[in-house]
Amino acid sequence: MKIEINNTDIFSVSVDAIVNPANKQAHLWLGSHINEIVRKKGGKQVVNERKEKGDIKLGEAVSTHAGNLSCKYIIHAAILDMYDFNPLFLLKIRQRTSDNVLRNATISSLQIADKLKIESIAYSPMGTGIGAMKMEKCANIMLQEIINFQMTYNNDMLKKIIFCVRGEKDYLIAMKVLKRLNQ
Q1: What are the pLDDT digits (tens) for 45-88?
Q2: How far apart are CA 97 and CA 56, in angstroms?
Q3: How many CB atoms lie within 10 A of CB 43?
Q4: Quick one: how far is CA 25 from the chain centroid?
Q5: I need a surface site. Which of 12, 45, 65, 108 has the fewest CB within 10 A?
């Protein structure tokens, strides 16, 4: 399994599935920037399928078809509770996404990818937006769990995982973390 760090938008990569950092609630009305794009561009199929799956616990994930998006599946990983609203989230005064929730959401989404028998998956640094987690901390948790999955599961199908970041600073942080974890 190959792990790539790309300085690009998650919707611009060619993969079988993208992971949507979502709320635990079944509807897609509020949430991350990626969640908003999934809702708007994925269309009614994604919205309705996600509603049918019902609410999930923080750290869990569910999959839907991708609707009008270019990938096959969306894996919705619950990293936020829409009712835990921080009116000052832009100031990032407090972290809304816990380490354990992020760790479990990463593991859950990888397990779903395994069940779907997909070859490629793309992640964004979940929880670094309105979740207010620092990029280095997020990359450490997510990339470590991806590496653990790679070593633990005998998965011949999943060949590529792309960690999509935006901006040179976050790209350099993620590359540094991946390099350190691979030593």
Answers
A1: 998 999 999 989 999 999 999 999 999 999 999 998 665 555 55
A2: 15
A3: 14
A4: 16
A5: 12
Q: Report CA torsion sign: 110, 21, 75, 170.
A: negative
Mean of pLDDT values over 130-145: 92
CA-CA distance, 40 to 29, in Å (whole number)?
10
Asked if 148 and 182 count as a contact pair (C-beta separation under 8 A), the reply is: no
Q: With 0.85 as the threshold, say if the pTM is over it.
A: yes
Nearest to 119 by CA among 145, 155, 68, 70: 155
Topology given in CATH for the domain delimited by 2-181: Leucine Aminopeptidase, subunit E; domain 1 (3.40.220)
Of 29-38, 42-51, 131-140, the range with the lowest mean pLDDT is: 29-38
Q: Are 50 and 64 in contact (CB under 8 A)?
A: yes
How many Cβ atoms from other residues are within 10 Å of residue 138's Cβ? 26
Contact (Cβ atoms closer than 8 angstroms) between residue 63 and residue 114: no
